Amino acid sequence: MNTKRSEELYSKAKNYFPGGVNSPVRAFRSVGGTPRFIAKGKGSKIWDADGNEFLDFCASWGPLINGHAHEDVVNAISTTAANGTSFGAPTELENHLAELILSNNPYIEKMRFVSSGTEAVMSAIRLARGASGRKKILKFEGCYHGHSDSLLVKAGSGLVTFGNTSSAGVPEEFVKETVVVPLDNEAAVEAAFKEFPNEIACVIIEPIPANNGLLLQRKEFLTFLREICTRNGAYLLFDEVISGFRVGFTGAAGLYDIRPDIITYGKIIGGGLPVGAYGASAQLMSNISPEGGVYQAGTLSGNPVAMAAGIAQLSLCLQKDFYTNLEAKTKAFTATIRNYAAQKNYTLRIFETGSIFWIAFSNDEAIRTAEAIDPKSMEKFRVLYHYLLENGIYLGPSGYEVGFISSVHTEDELKRASEIFCAGLDRVFAS
Ligand SMILES: *Cc1c(COP(=O)(O)O)cnc(C)c1O
To answer: At CA 57, angle to CA 381 and CA 347, rounded to 5?
Structure first.
């Protein structure tokens, strides 16, 4: 495969950007090799700068549930942009997108649009702190919530810990307000509430943790979180930036039928443009400025182009049987690979929910915590990754990342892709 142009562009990019990229995983550090510079995307496929074609399972890390450059989305963007891209004043399209979401989502009553998932989570945490008058937040090891200071904190040693920063530049004082516990562990959460009575403003979790493998939680654990938050006057915050509109229109809240106090969205919500959102009950949202004392603002928040893209995308998602079809396609795809691996006795599990899947080189029936992922298994992923890339299949360049299937991946494409995956496994286990 010719990669000359990508190599040239990458070496140029290194003069402009740290590591040559504008977001770290793109640099291919965990799989090695040169990142492919993408020139074009249409439907389920992308083409790199050298003209190589790939069937795409990265979907820009999740947003593109209807594939690349979907006609409805592109039309909405261009028609809207022709009339101005942003005014810093309210527009009717904000109402439309909010109506579309709120009238189909019983878990939130009011919302606010922002411009990224990070911003949504950062604002939602401020809301929880502002409304509760408490400082501490409780998060789980293995969940990603964007790159705001309070959330770049990882577990230290011990069950309930103040953790360590996972980034330079985050003050100790911030870290002290973030309590980190393992997933799938009721006792750890109970211990945290016991250690910090009346101090925890909120418990934040990815109800479907999908940024560090796919760590599917037991429903009882999520139900337990709901109960312990209610009992202790803490808010339960579901970070649904990745699961929202992905496992169903109402995300994980709907899938598990659990009512969190605050929900954050991003990725799919903007149809491929930078949009995030957070929502809660009307009463809780009344704490947000200008109604209440919790300040939050944004120059480009709710801009008409992004709103139009979101409306087009979510309208497609609301079509009858959209999620049922997507899930059925995903199941057929993973079943082929799973059956092949079983027949060959390969050490492999595929975890999935809705149209999200994750390949783990493990024999464990369930992987529910960050700790349960064997770092050595990533060597195998690296081999698989490059085999797939060479054979026209693009995944996010890390074994800790999940894959996504879109509504425009055809059954034929998926069948062909599953065969290439199986051949890739032969390669992995031959070495
Ligand atoms: C992607 C993601 C974020 C961060 O969103 P950005 O738009 O990248 O800032 C936060 N939380 C979760 C669960 C995510 O998947």
So the answer is: 30
Coil, strand or helix at 287? coil
Average per-residue pLDDT for the chain:
97
Residue type, 37: F
State the distance from the centre of ligand 1 to the C-alpha of 241, rounded, in angstroms.
5
Q: State the catalytic residues.
A: 144, 239, 267
Q: Is the pTM of this model over 0.85?
A: yes
Q: Pocket of ligand 1, candidates 23, 64, 121, 148: which has the most ligand atoms within 8 Å of its Cβ, to mutate?
A: 121
In one letter, which amino acid is 425?
L
Q: What is the pLDDT of residues 294-305, one digit of tens each?
A: 999 999 999 999
Burial of 87 (0-12, 13-18, 19+ CB in 10 A): exposed
- pLDDT exceeds 90 at position 334: yes
- Give the whole-angstrom CA distance, residue 332 versus residue 175: 44
CA distance 132 to 138: 14
62 CA → ligand 1 middle, Å: 10
